[in-house]
Write a structure and sequence with these properties.
about 500 residues, alpha+beta, seven-stranded mixed beta sheet
Length: about 500
């Protein structure tokens, strides 16, 4: 058989040349189309892993027939009495916990979801961790929301205003809050979008952390403490009025009177806490002069500085306010103290509630601080307790060398700023009462002290025996002392939805 003729070779070469030219042309068109897509993509600079972090893996794929790339997607962050995005309790870490080799991303909402977890993390089980548990457990709105481009380079998701819990000037609203897990910056320029940014801590190294990686927060209790309301079967539902300015006032209990506090009841409804008209009310009525009644308890409360969202016991003005408390109201305050919810960390708390409860209980806890400090410090020296704390995630060397002293020094102070110290005290207290029948959310210590709590502090009687219930009661008050006020009426200045940059 003879080989290909010169004509056949020429035809084959021409065919391959045509195929090659066609392929190169198509490649050029595809490259040009990709370039056009990039130019049309408003999220071109804000859809990569540097911005979205691990959430970049869960984006919708681009179809070949789509000229414009689909917008990246993310969760709508919603919260109310029943949880954050339908999850409660929330487990919080001070630093982002991610899979090996993954980054948080520049978007603040990815940072928020990297420190909030729908489960707890125990020692030795920190990794692997990814966002999929959130995708499975968040509500139906999760991952069905297109992100919003803001300021040309920020992929923003949405957060409802009631999930946030000032400074106002000619240029709009701008406020910054420092929290235990990082700082929040809220900006709302005139005529623009309200924007929220979160900046995580840069002072903590997860590998060198002495505390457990996560701690639990009950969303419903956080909401109620912010609103100044306590729910408990032994108390019912009890709300507290706003603090009064300097001068004299009379504390009165009003059955189902919470509805008169219009602004707070509005937020109570928005957060789906229940029926506001079922809530009882402790309200302070201004007096022109003191009441000469020796049966009343007289409370002296520091007046907070103007526009300073801080615990007034930490920043008192020179002129305090004086509150007269009749017998019925004394009983309500004592029951409220016994029914304070348990917490591992200080609260963002309603100032009116904090002022009254701390003022009523302060003379009693002051007499027990030394005994409580000794109890906490001694407990950490026992080997079986050290092993238990280690199993909870505390670092062994920290337990043996520092934990007891820090706890003892903390409870001796009537106020403080350290969330780390509060976690130390609460975990030791919880360890001490393990195995007992004490209910963390209800004690009886403060109601038992009503007979000792008269108008004269000199008549107070010290209880030298710190039983489990007493330890929990004093510890819950310590947590309230170390809590900070947050203005829950901030939501009135915000739109229904905000952008999380």
């Amino acid at each position: 058989m003879s080989g290909p003729t010169p004509v056949d070779s020429a035809n084959l070469a021409a065919q391959w040349t045509s195929v090659t030219i066609t392929a190169v042309g198509l490649g050029g068109l595809i490259a040009q189309a990709e370039s056009i897509r990039d130019q049309l993509d408003t999220f071109h600079k804000a859809r990569g892993e540097k911005v979205l972090g691990e959430w970049v893996e869960y984006q919708s794929p681009q179809r070949w027939y789509q000229l414009v790339k689909p917008a990246p997607r993310g969760p709508i962050i919603k919260g109310n009495f029943h949880g954050l995005c339908g999850v409660s309790p929330i487990h919080v870490s001070r630093k982002p916990l991610l899979r090996e080799g993954k980054s948080v991303g520049k978007a603040s909402w990815t940072a928020i979801l990297s420190i909030l977890h729908p489960y707890t993390l125990l020692p030795g089980k920190e990794k692997p961790r990814d966002s999929r548990p959130w995708l499975k457990r968040l509500d139906n709105h999760t991952y069905k929301h297109d992100l919003v481009m803001h300021r040309g380079d920020k992929s923003c998701t949405k957060i409802t205003r009631i999930a946030l819990i000032k400074y106002s000037g000619d240029s709009g609203l701008r406020v910054s809050y420092a929290g235990y897990t990082g700082s929040w910056l809220l900006q709302w320029p005139l005529g623009g979008h309200a924007e929220l940014e979160f900046f995580g801590l840069d002072s903590h190294d997860t590998n060198a952390e002495t505390h457990p990686l996560t701690f639990s927060r009950r969303v419903d209790k956080c909401v109620l403490m912010l609103l100044g309301v306590i729910h408990h079967p032994a108390l019912g539902k009890l709300g507290f009025s706003e603090p009064k300015e300097q001068g004299y006032s009379l504390l009165k209990f009003e059955s189902q009177g919470f509805s008169s506090n219009g602004k707070t009841t509005h937020l109570y409804n928005m957060m789906r806490c229940g029926n506001y008209y079922e809530v009882d009310y402790l309200v302070r009525y201004q007096l022109q002069e003191p009441i000469p009644d020796g049966e009343m308890v007289v409370l002296t409360i520091p007046s907070p500085e103007v526009d300073l969202n801080r615990n007034p016991w930490k920043n008192p003005m020179q002129t305090p306010s004086t509150v007269f408390v009749p017998a019925l109201e004394q009983e309500k305050l004592a029951t409220a103290l016994d029914c304070l919810p348990w917490s591992q960390l200080g609260w963002s708390v309603h100032c009116g509630m904090q002022c009254l409860l701390v003022a009523y209980a302060k003379p009693i806890i002051d007499l027990h601080r030394e005994a409580l400090a000794l109890k906490l410090k001694t407990a950490v020296t026992r080997e079986e307790n050290q092993l238990k704390l280690k199993s909870w995630g505390w670092k062994d060397s920290f337990i043996k060398n520092h934990m007891g002293s820090i706890a003892a020094n903390s409870v001796k102070k009537s106020a403080g700023e350290s969330g780390d110290n509060v976690r130390i005290v609460t975990d030791i207290a919880k360890l001490i009462v393990q195995g007992s029948s004490v209910d963390l959310d209800e004690t009886h210590f403060w109601r038992e002290q009503i007979g000792n709590r008269t108008g004269d502090p000199a008549t107070l009687v010290v209880n030298p025996s710190l039983e489990p219930g007493t330890i929990i009661a004093l510890t819950k008050l310590f947590v309230l002392e170390w809590s900070n006020e947050l203005d829950h009426k901030l939501y009135e200045d915000l739109p229904l939805e905000l952008l999380v940059a």
